[in-house]
Each structure stands twice: as structure tokens, then as C-alpha cells.
Amino acid sequence: MLETSEELETVSEAVNSSQSSMSSESCTSFSRLSFDVLDLVPQPRPLYSPESLVVKPHRSSESSWQAIRSMVLKRTASEGVCGMDGNSSLSFRDFCLVRQIGSGDIGKVYLCRLRNEDVEEKRCYYAMKVVDREVLALKKKTQRAATERKILNMLDHPFLPSLYAQFEASHFSCVVMEYCSGGDLHSLRHKQPRKRFSLSAARFYAAEVLVALEYLHMLGIIYRDLKPENVLVRSDGHIMLTDFDLSLCSDAIPAVQSHSLSSSSSPDLPSSSPAVPRPPSGHFACLPSQLFRSKKIQSFSAAKRLFVAEPVTARSCSFVGTHEYVAPEVASGGSHGNAVDWWALGIFIYEMVYGCTPFAGVSNEATLRNIIKKPLKFPTVSTISSRETQARDLISKLLDKDPESRFGSKRGAADIKTHPFFNGLNFALIRSATPPVIPQQKTASSRHFGGTTTSSFDFF
Question: What pTM does this model have?
């Protein structure tokens, strides 16, 4: 969970000290991470940088991508210097830090912009995550940072971060990502009536998180850190998952399966629930019709079928995650796999709907005991709507303490999407749906390192 901003030490300590300390007294000093002072120090060449790659399809038309590539072209034309991949790469000299916007376990995050953007109305803002490699080595968390970098380079999805640039400055590693101006769902929930979302809002956010997890699992990535604090809200109201240093990289084998192949392994829906909607009968839009030439395959494609890409063979024995969100198999110290993400999704939906997590105890130890032994309970109310009944049914299936029988453990999002709680929701077009809350456009005066400036950006 990101914390409030803190200031860095003095510039002189930035060059000479190997230990970082924080000061909250002044915004005018930019401690160990002074980009201006680092200009005086011989710098390593920039790392392989995503801004020199072919533009990612989901971001190709966005001004933030265009601004990055424009800066790359300007540097290439003016300096005639190419990066390791044959193209010019950005470095810390190309960015101006505005202010610190948060900190996590392995780094701090700063709001930044491209240095040469003089027209305020045309400025594009980014989030720069800065990691001290020396501190990482002392904490023995170097591999976690490497895992996050690897994953960020793989992603191209509307509900996941866009990596714009990565480079090194002194003993710091920096990654420049998309800036989400709407805060996170934890903060947003606390601004709702009774500190909980409506069922329709909870369903919307759960659906977008589900689609993001589906994509990650398709890449063989088990997220392992789902919680409202890690679900950021973009300026358009849609979500973005963040923080991948706890994620597990594995393999997933994509397959197209008939719904009837494993229907017996999926939990049965209550008899009072509406029938599960059938997928449309046409071919997959993303696959050419030539792939369905044989009558056997055509017959199969016209039947109920699902695209499945789930890393079911992945295993880890690491204890990772936030206590209230860890699955029973993690809390008990056993091995775990892809099912931990679906458990976390159940906790996530419960918290969105009821304003708290179901197994929280007075201490972390009590919480873990509750997760392992305490049965799931819902708030007692006189009457509940059919939609809430569906929500409780989905939560109950996701919070099955047995990972083998947990909803989603075999076929992941392909099964979860068919639950009645999501009836009437078009997952393919959810990116175009109107979010429950859209951040208000306001102008805020922001202090930046080295002086004061007024910057316009979205915020709550």
C-alpha cells in the first residue's frame, strides 16, 4: 500500500552515502536522487528501453506514448546517439520530477513529466518507480525487482501498466509507467456511503480485475498481491493493477475447451440462480475462419466453448501477500498455485460489497488462523436482493478453502465469467463501459524538487 510522500536527503549525501534516510522538512532538496547532480557523474548506458520498441497496440493512439516517442526522435536527431538496441533510449535527464506520490516495499514512486514540455496544457504526466539497488541487495530483494521489470516488459493490456521507459541512474533503477490520477480502490471505497460500493459498482470493478487476472494467467503470471490498494483508478475511471514484485512467473498452455468437458469439476450453481448464459455461437472473432474448416471442428465451435489459458501446474512454497488476502494454503505454509489469485478475488469482492474482509483478526496471527479454520460468514440482514444472492454465491465458491475444488482453479476466468453474478455484462466491451466513478478534473498546485510550480492533473 502506498504511503504518504516523504522527502529525500540532501544532494551531497546522494553521491557519497550508501544508506538512504528520509526528511519531511523541505521540498527543495532532492536527496540521493538528484538528476541534476547525477549529470556530473559518469553514467552507464541506458538499459534496453521499451520506448524504442514498436508501439504497443493498446497505447498507440495515446498522447503519453506519442510524447515519449517524440522525445526519442528529438534525441536521435540532436545527438545522433543510439541505445543498445540500435535506437535512442531515454534516461533520467529527459524527465523532471514533480513530487513523490507514494512508496512501497522495494521502491518509491514519483509523479514526473518530460523535461522539455514547456506548454503546461500539453504536458503528459507519468509515474516513475525508483528502486535503490544497494538497499535491495541488503534486503535480499533484488530478484523481486527483476521479476517486476520482466513482467512490465511483457504487458500490453488496457487494465495493466504501460512501461514507457527504464534506465539506471547511479545506483538507482528507474521505470517510467502510466500515471493513474484517480488514486486506488481502497481510498475510493472509503469515500462511498457506508464505506462500501454498490453491487453494480463492485461487479464492474470485479469484472475488470477478472479480465486483468485472466490476461496475466494467460502469460503464466500468478499475481499473488491482489488487494484494493493495488487496484489503481485511471483518469477515465477504469482500473489498472499495479505492483508485480510478488508475482510468480510460470507457463500456461492455451486451449479451447467445450464447457461440458469439465462441468462436473466446476461447482454447481444454486437451483434458484438464473441459467448460465451461453457464449455466442459464431467463430472466435480473433481467429480466422480457416481454422474451422473440418466439420468436426466447426461443430465444436458452434457448441458451448471456452478459451482456457491457466497456469495450473505452477507451484511455490513462498509466503507472500497481504495477510487478510492470503489463501489458506499459503497461511498454512503449504505449496500454492494459480488458485491463490481466485481466493484473493473472492476477498476483494467481499470487501467491495461489505466494506471489510471476512477473516480479519485482532492480529496477523489471528487473521491467518481465521483464514485456515473460520467458516465464511456474511452480514445478517432481513432481506437481500437476487443480485446480492448471486454475489454471495460467487464469493462462497471463490473462498473454498480447498484449492483443488475452488472456483477457477481448473479453468480460471473462463469459468468465473459464466457465473450469474456477471449476467448481462459484456466482458469483450467492458473497456468501453461507463465506470461507476470518474475522477473529477481539477487543477492542483504542486511543489516540485528545486522550486514551486503549478501543475494541472486529475485527482480526487
Answer: 0.76
